[in-house]
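Q: Here's a chain of 421 amino acids. Please give me its 3D structure as tokens.
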Amino acid sequence: MYLVFVMMTADKHLCRMVNVRRSQHLFFLLGCFLLILEQTEGFYVPITYVQSAVAKGGVCLDGSPPAYHMDKGFGAGIDNWLIQLEGGGWCNNVSTCLARRDDRLGSSKQMIKQLAFSGILHNKPKFNPDFYNWNRIKVRYCDGSSFTGDVEAVNPATNLHFRGQRVFRAVMDDLFAKGMSNAKMAILSGCSAGGLASILNCDTFSGLLPVTAKVKCLADAGYFINAKDVSGVQHIEQFYNDVVATHNAVKNLPQSCTSKLKPGLCFFPQNVVGGTKTDLFLVNAAYDSWQIKNILAPGVADPHGTWHNCKADITKCSAEQLTVMQGYRMEFLSALGGLGSSPTARGYFINSCYAHCQTETQETWLRNDSPLLSNKTIAKAVGDWFFDRSPFQKIDCPYPCDKTCHNRVFDGQANLDIVEF
């Protein structure tokens, strides 16, 4: 008996149509699987549930234990730790939190058991030369508050647990028990809502580590700005006000900000980074695709859908829409002013790709055709900055001048983050 297989990716056929005997097909499938894995430049890491967190109240929205995926360090990196916080938007009231309570963004019961690691999480020097042998951890996101919430009471009618900060602390405790208490170097990183979490929890994380450790933070697509939408309304500000109030996040936001501004405003990095003591690097697109879709042109501000095609593909934007987006870029660059000017304490890679999350995807982190600034990939820029080989503070020229973006939409986790206020 003969079996026919066709295996392919979006780029090309990896295993062409062939005939194989029944006794050979398992070996054929295994070979194809390994070839596909190599082509996608990633590998899979199993999930770990933090059962001990339940007793501490550090649980997901539905009360299930938090979780993470860990690939252990080896060789010279055995005492170094990279913590990557997952993104996935936020919930700002009981209704929106209920909407995600029973999916993977609110329950560890719904999370996949194997997660692909690539980019900054890769374990091969070819793909991740500076951090490949570190302990690399992806912390799953299931609280809806960028790991800042802490409400003691649980309404039995909804069974919603607003415990993001307790989740963060419980995961850190678990990692400390696995060796992070002896860390020599560490990075708190994250993508999207996880990138925002890495900023908001940066000094807290640094304070947990040994005083002798070299600790820095990295925010990927987490620099959300307080801007008006195309209808002239600041929907994002009200949304963040509601997030902070719903999750009682104020006590876990940086006091350097909350002592001066309303709590909701301290969910915006531009109001926080100036008071952040730990070194911080930003990777962000000036035309961040999530921000364009949800802050600049959310559905509520575009009832007739005139921005629909533009948001889906920047090459389909009209001249008028591009002018509006150029204005948004200028607002974004202005908001970077809060970072301060120290080239050693603050680094940034601000490109003009239409992108959201670029450190966990191999094609944007480090590959032959990756986006470049000053002829450096994101991986090279981050590595040089972290190890103090050279500072990096570069801002790209306006769209569409950067040809290293290939006019492709690097959207990372954007589809998971859509809020549509």
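Q: Can you summarize the key feature?
A: DSSP finds 13 helices and twelve strands in the chain.
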